[in-house]
Structure formats: structure tokens, C-alpha cells
Design brief:
Largest sheet: none
Structural class: mainly alpha
Radius of gyration: 21 Å
CATH class: Mainly Alpha
CATH architecture: Orthogonal Bundle
Order of helices and strands: HHHHHHHH
CATH topology: MetI-like fold
Number of strands: 0
Helix content: over 70%
């Protein structure tokens, strides 16, 4: 046992850095995959809509923790060794793609269908209508819930500790194992999580207020 030192704080900050990195990877990769899920969910091809719906239901119907285990231990049993960061990023990419895909699908479908009809009168293809007319409007609606989901994603990175990834929660566990000061160590970790998540939550509320103000003015 010993006292909490600057070295321990640096260790926690290093874990916070990996937490932020994992969150960014999950949002970037999950955003790309989520956009594909959104397109599939609103596709005119029935089989594609069914496949994407099944994907969303499976991902949303299983805990992220189980998905972490499958990516790390499951692939390992299959003979595919992956680093903890890669396994955690893949699991969180799959997780975030399903939720982001549904958030964005709902935002697109909230746009009045007359917008598509107006685009068709301009001889725009469905893809051109989506990119030039629908998505710019849906973006305003999708931004607040997307930012809100990002906050949840940052906090969910703590689950990566179960596969040995040295993010903030895992770093706190390592320090606590030597200091036996759980209230102090995990309290500091909580403050660090709050320092990352609160600005995002605040931004989400500001965006939501601006969006609601824009609707009232309209």
C-alpha cells in the first residue's frame, strides 16, 4: 500500500487517452457502418431492408459486454488472435453502427415525403434526392441524438476492461489493486469521465434547444 501520487495520476490520464481514442474509433467506424445500415433500412429493396433489420435487432438485443467477449475470446478460440484494442473497437463499431443507423433512419424518415416528390419533379435520382435534399435537413434533426449517443459510447468504453484493454476503468483497477483506495481512485476516474462527457452532454442540449427554436420560428 502507498499514497496516491502524480505517477498514478499520469497513469489514469494515459488510460483516459486510450478511452478517448477508443471512443473516436468507435464513432468513426461505427458512423461509416451506421450510414450503410441507414441506407439499407430505407432501401427500396425489400430483402435488403429485412437483412439490415435483422442485423439491428440482433445487435440491439445483445449486451455490448457479450459482443466484447465474442470479438476477443471468440475470435481467439477460432484461431484469430486480435489485440484488445482491435477487439474492443470492432465490438463497439458493431454496437454503434446499429444504434446510429436507427437514429439516422428515424431522422431521414421524419422529413416529409413531399421533399422526395419535389426532388423527383426536378428529375433528380433517388440518390441525388437523398444527398442533396433529404440528408441536409435530416442532419439538423440527427445531430442532438447523435451527440447524446456519443456520450453513452464514451462511458461504455469502460466495458473494454474485461478484455484487458488498458482504458480509464482498467487503469483505475490496476492502481486500486496496489493502493486499496477504491473511493479515491475510482472517484478520480469518475471525475475524468465527467470531464469528457459533460461538455458533450451540454453541447447536445444546446443543439436541441437551437433545433427546437428553429422549429418554433418555422
Amino acid at each position: 500500500m502507498g499514497d496516491f501520487s502524480s505517477g498514478h495520476m499520469i497513469y489514469l490520464l494515459n488510460g483516459l487517452m486510450w478511452t478517448v481514442l477508443l471512443s473516436m474509433l468507435a464513432m468513426l467506424l461505427g458512423g461509416i457502418a451506421g450510414f450503410a445500415v441507414m441506407l439499407a433500412r430505407i432501401s427500396q429493396r425489400r430483402w435488403l431492408r429485412r437483412i439490415s433489420l435483422g442485423y439491428v435487432q440482433i445487435v440491439q438485443g445483445t449486451p455490448l459486454l457479450i459482443q466484447m467477449f465474442l470479438m476477443y475470446f471468440g475470435l481467439g478460440v477460432a484461431g484469430i488472435e486480435v489485440p484488445a484494442l482491435v477487439a474492443a473497437a470492432l465490438a463497439m463499431m458493431i454496437y454503434s453502427s446499429a444504434y446510429l443507423g436507427e437514429i439516422w433512419r428515424g431522422s431521414v424518415l421524419s422529413i416529409d415525403n413531399t421533399q422526395f416528390e419535389a426532388a423527383e419533379t426536378l428529375a433528380l435520382t433517388r440518390w441525388q434526392s437523398l444527398v442533396d435534399v433529404i440528408l441536409p435537413q435530416a442532419l439538423r434533426i440527427a445531430t442532438p441524438p447523435t451527440v447524446g449517443f456519443t456520450v453513452q459510447l464514451v462511458k461504455n468504453t469502460s466495458l473494454a476492461s474485461v478484455v484487458g484493454f488498458l482504458e480509464l476503468t482498467r487503469s483505475a483497477q490496476v492502481i486500486n489493486n496496489s493502493l486499496f483506495e477504491p473511493f479515491l481512485v475510482f472517484g478520480i476516474a469518475a471525475v475524468l469521465y465527467f470531464a469528457v462527457c459533460y461538455p458533450l452532454s451540454l453541447w447536445s442540449r444546446i443543439l436541441e434547444r437551437k433545433l427546437n427554436a428553429g422549429r418554433r420560428q418555422a
